């Protein structure tokens, strides 16, 4: 059996392995086997009687925890099992904090250590206080904006219109023992970057991944960043189709405005601000990609985001203020709402990808419409096929040949051209090829 998140093998005992015990204690717990090789085969150890006496004492004296230490005898030899329970409080090895991740041990330092310690003590990054900053330094206009939005959405009572900034801060629980929390500065300070590095948004228009045509940096507090970013997205970075109903002018955006706003709010609410990296929005001719540094809740997957799920905001104080302003839902419906809006607009459902650096959400245009396809200079068969088979989601070369009364060779040539143009992707060979819509 190979090593896992909860299992570690050591052929002999060394006192430095107390770091591994520390790592298990700070994570999900686990077991260390002394006297086994890397594959989990018993090779035996000597001095088991001495180790049985020494190990519990060393673990307690140096790490301050108690672990079960068990001796097992086999025909191949004796081995020792150390059972480490997860600990509610941080455990350190001579001032070092270690953590078990996957099948490796990591020493926590810097921002990672800060985050770990906060989690162990039941606090979040945005709930930490900043000394020597007063409510008078916050932006009065943003408080007015917050109140108007909250009252209009019925998340705040009409009487809140007369609340002072101090009252709002206290009602939102954005202060602790007279000190403002980080969330208060991000939400209402005119220049939160004085306190939080990277607390801004970058947006750029790309022709290709390496060809940036123009860009903007959006600064200010979070409310200002959201409003300015949405304005730029809708007026500078994407197009609006103009139509008229009677004398009324109607603008239809390339992507649903509320879906983009929801995705932006998710990025701002769930960003790991300790990472000191701005939110990044990459706009292309056919897609918009929004990225934020951060992590999914423990044991969550991207697939779980697409299902009904609870709301576990990475920055709960920021999320609460957004909820009170009417910006966001409180029940984890953000992704569901985005999907519904895109489906109503006839767009593909956005894709979400996640790795240890952060999370991407990607919106794509419906490239399978007559006007867009004509701009690509396709032949009439190709355009008709993409429109006809769009709902089915795939075309076979034999279907194409039959429908347009062409040879198999011509069908494969037309469809292969659509693959090159990244309108279809190919699966299979020759007559059995399936051409899947992107």
Helix and strand arrangement:
Layout: E1 7-10, H1 18-26, E2 30-34, H2 48-63, E3 68-74, E4 77-84, E5 97-101, E6 104-108, H3 110-120, E7 129-130, H4 140-152, H5 165-171, E8 175-176, E9 179-181, H6 182-188, E10 201-208, E11 211-218, H7 222-237, E12 240-245, E13 248-253, H8 257-270, E14 279-283, E15 287-292, H9 302-305, H10 316-324, H11 334-344, E16 351-355, E17 358-364, H12 370-375, H13 380-389, E18 394-396, H14 397-404, H15 408-420, E19 424-427, E20 434-437
Parallel strand pairs: 1-2, 10-14
Antiparallel strand pairs: 2-4, 3-4, 5-6, 7-9, 8-9, 10-11, 12-13, 14-15, 15-17, 16-17, 18-20, 19-20
Helix pairs in contact: 7-8, 8-11, 14-15
Plain-language structure description:
This protein has 438 residues and is an alpha+beta fold. 35% of the residues lie in helices and 24% in strands. The strands form six sheets. A six-stranded mixed β-sheet has the order 11-10-14-15-17-16, with helices on one face. The longest helix is centred in the first third of the chain and has 16 residues, at 48-63. The protein contains 15 helices and 20 strands. It has three domains: 7-122, 2-Layer Sandwich (Methyltransferase, Cobalt-precorrin-4 Transmethylase, Domain 2), CATH 3.30.950.30; 124-366, 2-Layer Sandwich (Heat Shock Protein 90), CATH 3.30.565.60; 370-437, Orthogonal Bundle (Arc Repressor Mutant, subunit A). It is flat, with a radius of gyration of 29 Å. The protein has helices at residues 18-26, 48-63, 110-120, 140-152, 165-171, 182-188, 222-237, 257-270, 302-305, 316-324, 334-344, 370-375, 380-389, 397-404, 408-420, and strands at residues 7-10, 30-34, 68-74, 77-84, 97-101, 104-108, 129-130, 175-176, 179-181, 201-208, 211-218, 240-245, 248-253, 279-283, 287-292, 351-355, 358-364, 394-396, 424-427, 434-437.
